[in-house]
Amino acid sequence: MNAVELIDIKKSFDGGHEFVLNGLNLNIPKGSLTVIIGYSGTGKSVMLKHILGLLKPTSGQINVFSQNLWEMSDKDIMKMRTKIGVLFQHAALFDDQTVLENVCFPLIEHKRGVKLNLIKDIATKKLIVSGIEEKHFGKLPSELSGGMRKRVGLARALALDPEILIYDEPTTGLDPILTEMVDDLIHETHHREKGKVTSIVVSHDLMAAFRIGQHIVMLDKGKVLHSGTPKDFLESDIPLVRKFVEKGTKKKYGL
Ligand SMILES: Nc1ncnc2c1ncn2[C@@H]1O[C@H](COP(=O)(O)OP(=O)(O)OP(=O)(O)O)[C@@H](O)[C@H]1O
Ligand SMILES: [Mg+2]
User: Fold this and answer.
1) pLDDT tens, position by position, for the chain (255 residues)?
2) Are residues 6 and 74 in the same domain?
3) Is 88 a domain residue?
4) Which of 92, 132, 195, 242 is the most exposed place for a label (fewest CB within 10 A)?
5) Which residue among 44, 55, 206 is best mutated to probe the pocket of ligand 1, counting the most ligand atoms within 8 A of its Cβ?
6) Is residue 131 part of a domain?
7) Which residues have their alpha-adjacent CB atom under 5 A from ion ligand 2?
8) Nearest CA to ligand 1 atom 17
9) Residue 71 DSSP code
């Protein structure tokens, strides 16, 4: 079964003739960890926004758990959104809320009627599995390191027990050690509940894609250029894939 199906998606903004997504076809199998790579401006974030239902395609169809996203009622779309957890590049925490409040937020929003104590218990569990100790729960985001903010962002993304986890450039701008930590966290989170969670990670970092992804997809000009295992990528003779692979591996080893 596929968690997400993108069928011949085309997207232009403001009725223009330039297509940012230009006949994108992609299936994301349930339970897989897929890494999306590609040069800047090739439509990776726009694609994620389509999966989240935040952007409507100009044409084409998006199925999430076999349901056509744009034929769902508003109520069903809301319900579907609670099944998707997102971690953006800057973690997007609320600056004026503590660590614990940040993670309680989606629970208070979506689990109306549930007692605050129970909500705090759930948030506590998510923070602990994301590697935040209780002594940090009362701190504000500004009092945390970049790595800890990512962990809190992840805990918040996990709050509603999502079936799909989406990460958009989770490591861009982080130093190599933090990058590896966040990659490991993504990997661990994916494998903690075997087969239950579908993870979609957009990354610039090819080595990270090779390290964490079972399934790698490269976009170019709003389409899938290549998809396969790390081995398929290393052996590809598509010029743009080779270029990306050569650059990505050289950067890692400082050649
Ligand atoms: N709301 C919008 N209105 C108009 N154009 C947009 C909008 N959002 C994105 N675009 C354009 O769509 C193209 C793809 O953008 P997108 O953000 O998906 O790139 P990306 O692959 O995620 O790049 P990066 O790796 O730099 O994050 C860009 O040319 C961008 O300017
Ligand atoms: Mg992007």
Assistant:
1) 999 999 999 999 988 889 999 999 999 999 999 999 999 899 999 999 999 988 999 999 999 999 999 998 888 888 888 899 998 877 689 999 999 999 999 999 888 888 999 999 999 999 999 999 999 999 999 999 888 898 999 999 999 999 999 999 888 877 888 888 889 989 998 998 878 899 999 988 888 888 888 899 999 999 999 999 999 999 999 999 999 888 877 665 554
2) yes
3) no
4) 195
5) 44
6) yes
7) 44-45
8) 45
9) G
